[in-house]
Design brief:
The complex is a heterodimer. By secondary structure, chain A is mainly α. Helix content of chain A is 72%, strand content 0%. In chain B, helix 4 packs antiparallel against helix 5, helix 4 runs antiparallel to helix 11 and helix 5 packs antiparallel against helix 6. Chain B is built from 15 helices and eight strands. Classes of the chains: A mainly alpha, B alpha+beta.
Chain lengths: 305, 399
């Protein structure tokens, strides 16, 4: 029985199916809200599903000059990483399925697998747009990854644990956005950098480098990368709202808080102009890291006394 | 190995098919990391042989053809052609026709500049501005449709006049539309001169000094943003610009921000001019008659299109068809500046610099260069030789 439950939690909830479906729904919500803010109609609710289905049914073209094992394997790895991370976070307001001390770090590294996968996928091909895109993707990893990690460690410090479940339980009784506003700011923007959302979408700026690292991908590989990104959107929203927005104690709160956070992301996406890659890096290392360190200093000082 | 010491050339091709370009043109940018070290352009992908085609159609049929040189500034091409033919025939369109031509030309400028704001905001990755400016552009498109019956190729001109009149109701709807557009333009001017993320992408980018602009022969708003006094509506007024003068909008900074500001401030001038003309529309006929055969002669007409100077050379041999028609559009004059200015900038700035001149490739393609990739030989063919080559080619390929 336990085995069956374990398999169910891996494949249906909160692991596989639930994450995929909710990822695509959040992606739709993101697109629809941006469209409304931009005075457009926007996609219908099943558009991401239709896109994914279409891509999955298409022929996957493996271009010349690539390592085909990597070409096929990287999207799988990226999606697997994102899905695995879902097991350690309080999805849908329920406590995490698995957990061990220090799993926060594991989650963050699993989430990085996606970006790493995209970067490597770009570097794997001979396409010039992909190579530039891969360079930019990997440059962006080095710029936002550290501040994002530091921003999520702020709540971990006050909660006194590096386990996602315990931090989110602690955050359930403390609205950390009030005590750590700087950390929240950096976490939100870090999440956008991680997901390569506008204005941090220089790695796939289509007016310069077509689709960036994913230019050569079509069909299955592209579908898997897109799914991975959708899943990561849900996980990122869950993590940040669990840590900073007073925890996720039930499914209703989960929905309200993650959607509220999504609304913030949508606002930023539609208000700002795309940053150049040097401006992105400059923003992170000049302001992002500094803000988080100030936040840490404040936390440490308060805890010290 | 000595080769490894040489810097690795990494070329980024942009075009002929590329998301940044809505029209075919080919650019090659050699980059060192993200910085562009050299640039190269190749044109001719949309060469349509319009000049040759014009020689085979009558003076009146050509109106239809000429209007299709450019999809955005169709009126200014037809106007230039009409003025040239009227020059040759030594007639002048009546003042009311001239005024209506000017109103349509200025409405077209508004529509073109709004389109351009959207396109360049899109190149910068500012999709919201793109969507909003194109929504507002619909207003001026509707005005043009109400006036002429067409959204794009207005076909307002006749040889010797215009096809339609502006009545009081139309004038009122134009005034109302202009009020809305003026308010929106004020808002966009505020956005492009105060939005800090947008300024990061425009301020100090692609700076062209006025000396550079002179040397590279820049025209239109691109030149005026570098403080080059070049506006044919002021320098050599045509149509109704003699009776209704316009102010030249200049800027001294020469960067992308200046190009944005010059174009938006020009819009205010257009709004003012259209209102002024509508208030004092001269009475009289709409067209005069022109002979079917135009007297022999040559003439040059230069007009200020939304993008800059349009140059027309028309030669008549006294027949019912033109002997020669030569068109030069502003994009070809401004492209040099893109190639020059791109060097030293980040790759991410290149689409912005390119969009900054408001390029229009299909209109500027006057020739196509065919490259023989197998043997690097250059040869010129006459029309007869080319025809024979085509026949032989298809015969030997069994088609």
């Amino acid at each position: 029985m336990n085995v069956l439950l374990g398999i169910a939690s891996l494949l249906v909830f909160p692991g596989g199916l639930f994450l995929l479906v909710s990822g695509l729904m959040y992606e739709w919500a993101d697109h629809k809200l941006i469209a409304l803010l931009q005075n457009r109609v926007g996609p219908r609710w099943f558009q991401p599903f239709a896109d994914t289905l279409k891509l999955l049914m298409k022929e996957e073209i493996i271009p010349d000059g690539v390592n085909s094992i990597m070409f096929v394997g990287l999207p799988l790895m990226a999606l697997a990483g994102a899905l695995t991370a879902g097991l350690y976070i309080p999805l849908a307001g329920l406590p995490p399925t698995f957990g061990f001390p220090g799993d926060l770090i594991v989650v963050l590294y699993l989430l990085s697998l996606l970006t790493l996968g995209i970067g490597l996928a770009g570097a794997n091909t001979l396409d010039r747009f992909s190579l530039i895109g891969a360079t930019r993707t990997l440059t962006q990893v080095f710029s936002y990854e550290a501040p994002f990690l530091l921003a999520l460690l702020g709540p971990a410090m006050v909660a006194g644990s590096w386990q996602v479940g315990k931090i989110s339980a602690y955050a359930g009784s403390h609205w950390l956005i009030l005590t750590q506003p700087l950390g929240f700011l950096v976490a939100v923007i870090g999440l956008m950098g991680k997901l390569e959302l506008a204005p941090f979408d220089a790695p796939e700026a289509h007016t310069e480098i077509v689709a960036g690292a994913m230019t050569e991908y079509s069909g299955r590989g592209l579908a898997l990368f897109n799914l991975g990104r959708a899943v990561e959107l849900v996980i990122g929203l869950t993590l940040v709202s669990a840590f900073y927005l007073g925890g996720l104690s039930n499914p209703l709160w989960f929905l309200t808080k993650t959607l509220a956070l999504l609304l913030v992301l949508v606002g930023i996406q539609s208000l700002l102009t795309r940053l150049r890659i040097d401006q992105t890096v400059g923003l992170w290392w000049r302001y992002g890291v500094l803000l988080v360190l100030i936040q840490w200093l404040i936390v440490i000082l308060f805890r010290g006394f | 190995m000595p080769e490894s010491n040489a810097p690795i050339r990494f070329t980024i091709p942009i075009g002929p098919q590329h998301p940044a370009l809505k029209e075919p043109g080919h650019f090659q940018f050699t980059v060192d990391g993200e910085v562009v070290t050299s640039a190269y352009v190749r044109l001719g992908y949309a060469h349509r042989g319009i000049e040759k085609a014009a020689e085979q159609r009558s003076w009146i049929q050509n109106l239809y053809l000429i209007e299709r040189i450019c999809g955005i500034c169709s009126h200014i091409h037809a106007l230039a052609y009409c003025l040239a033919v009227e020059n040759l025939a030594h007639v002048e369109a009546p003042p009311r026709a001239q005024a209506i031509r000017t109103v349509v030309a200025e409405l077209e400028r508004i529509h073109s500049h709004f389109l351009w704001i959207g396109v360049s905001a899109h190149e910068a990755g500012f999709e919201t501005l793109f969507m909003y400016s194109w929504r507002d552009r619909e207003t001026v498109m509707d005005l043009l449709e109400g006036l002429t019956g067409n959204r794009v190729n207005y076909s307002a001109n006749l040889l010797g006049g215009v096809k339609f009149d502006i009545d009081q109701a139309q004038a009122d709807s134009i005034r109302k539309g202009l009020d809305f557009l003026e308010e929106r333009t004020r808002h966009y001017l505020d956005v492009i001169s105060h939005d800090s993320t947008f300024l990061q992408r425009t301020r100090g980018i692609g700076v062209m000094t006025s000396a550079q602009a002179e040397v590279m022969g820049a025209v239109g708003p691109t030149a005026r943003a570098s403080n080059v006094k070049r506006d044919l509506r002021v320098e050599a007024p045509y149509a109704a610009y003699k009776a209704f003068p316009v102010q030249m909008v200049l800027d001294t900074r020469g960067d992308l921000e200046a190009r944005f500001e010059v174009r938006l401030k020009e819009l205010f001038e257009s709004f003012r001019l259209i209102r002024q003309i509508l208030d004092a529309l001269p009475e009289g006929e709409l067209a005069v008659r022109l002979p079917r055969r135009i007297p022999a002669g040559e003439t040059v007409v230069r007009l200020e299109a939304p993008r800059g100077e349009v140059y027309y050379f028309v030669k008549s041999a006294g027949a019912d068809k033109p002997e020669r028609l030569k068109v030069r559009t502003p994009t070809i004059c401004n492209l040099t500046s893109v190639i020059r200015l791109a060097v030293g900038h980040q790759l991410a700035d290149v689409p912005m610099i390119l969009a900054g001149i408001d390029p229009c490739f299909s209109c500027n393609d006057r020739m196509v260069q065919v490259r023989d990739t197998k043997n690097d030989s250059q040869k010129l063919m006459t029309w007869e030789q080319l025809r024979q080559h085509g026949i032989d080619f298809y015969r030997s390929n069994g088609k």
